[in-house]
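Regression check, thiamine diphosphate case 552:
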Amino acid sequence: MSQAKAPAAKTTPMTTAEATVGALVAHGIDTVYALPGVHNDHLFDALFKASDRIRTVHTRHEQGAAYMALGAALATGKPQVYTVVPGPGLLNSAAALLTAYGMNAPVLGLIGQIAQSAIGRGLGHLHEIRDQAGIIAGLVDFSARIRAPAEAAPLVAAALQAMGSGRHGPAVLECAIDVWSRSAPLPAPAPPAAVPEPALDQEAIGRAVERLSGAKRPLIVVGGGAQDASAEVTALSRLLQAPVLAYRRGRGVLDSRSPFSVTLPLGRELWGEADVVLAVGTRLFQGFTQWGIDPGLAIIRVDADPEEPDRVARPAVALVGDAKPILRGLIEALPAQARPDRGPEMQERQAEMRGRLAKLAPQSAFLEAIRAELPEDGIFVDEVTQIGFASRLLFPVYKPRTFLSPGYQDNLGWGFASALGAQHARPDVPVVAVSGDGGFLFTSNELATAMRHRIALTVIVFNDGAFGNVRRIQEESYGNRLIASDLANPDFVRYAQSFGAEAERARDPQELRAALKRAFARRAIPTLIEVPVGPMPSPWEFIMMPRVRGQR
Ligand SMILES: Cc1ncc(C[n+]2csc(CCOP(=O)(O)OP(=O)(O)O)c2C)c(N)n1
Ligand SMILES: [Mg+2]
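Current build output:
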């Protein structure tokens, strides 16, 4: 680094906590989602002193703090920070950290620790947990403990750097209760050093271009790693006349209004016909584990994680790095080609697929009501519920980062609290969360957070009095032997009102639309809309689909 250049950098006495907060501010972090406790009192005092530069948003449970950071990270694409006490505080936040890991979301956890000298001795200190560092190391790729004031700023910088390079993802820094308050003369925290863009692998680009320009039926598959390469994916789709398949994390990369934008069921058909697949920031989970591969399919992988391309099957070409510059390289190198216009074919196939998906009419009607009221850049937050499952297949998404879905963890209860974080980080657009009656009560206590911090999101609770998805499986596959799937619920409207939130009941899609119009016009305090529903048709035939190529 450039420390050697300045002969004697001016130093001021600073505690570890002050140096940590200073480093966060220097890196552009403007919010810490938080739940305090004695281990972190010095950190909170430093946050108090810096409150003109960094906001502290406290929640009612540690999972709420971590989910808020996750939702904010997904909505903005920027790193977000949460802080909690060790032991139970860490574990309470762990499901969110796990989900952030699965979604490659840049979430930094600042986790307290017992006194440095007591770590590992089993003395029974408050919130002590055996091998906290080991537990953390199983949850994230980058973790470290700040052991002295001088380590704070470099470790914050290293954590943020790790979170945003290679496969993005969460990181954790621990700090012991007695280290936060230790003081030393330190230089002012420096902003992040500019990281030079790595050179493109022109040889691999050349091979990819050869495959793509020779392809008769190319298919582009996008995941969460393509969210910041929407313009490039859109241009490639046009140049190659290639449909773009997205399921959960890739929705919105190509505008759903394009007939080339497809979800799973039509994507599977196209996978079966494709000669070249260009996979951008996706694990290709359905393709590899359900739909099958064979030698007639050449796969080009674009991925930030160097270990990803070879994980299941060696691709024809692997391009490692951020999607945006790599796709730009492909676009520049692609020869001008007159390709037959696949627009009419795609329109016809979309119409045919809409006919098949009409089986999900009850879900569609509610989703249409939401889409009709949610502005183009409004954010939809999905949950593990009937409307959520259907939204992944048929909710039109117009822009990147406007459809937030929990990825492969499919972690029930993530939605409301993550939506709260999304709305906090994006106060300029309305955020709407859908929840089942089951999932909502996982984090509904955070309505208090929404009131305390005036976060005006809208949550729609679809109330079927059940863990409906579980109940349907018991009905259909277990001879109707219903167990642990019925729910006793509060009156959701009165429940929300008791926090001071706006709340109303909508009995059908028309009433939902009217309620949403009111909620989005108001946007001063949170709104809950309860929608009583009955059982809904199963979406699973459109999600878990059989093989279309290769041998069993
Ligand atoms: C953390 C977690 N626990 C359990 C599950 C299993 N699970 C999947 S769907 C579901 C029921 C969801 O009920 P609800 O939120 O009411 O939605 P509904 O299916 O009724 O629309 C459960 C328990 C899960 N996905 N995640
Ligand atoms: Mg339910």
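Comparison notes: Residues 475 and 481 are 7 Å apart (CA to CA). DSSP finds 20 helices and 20 strands in the chain. No diff flagged against the previous build.
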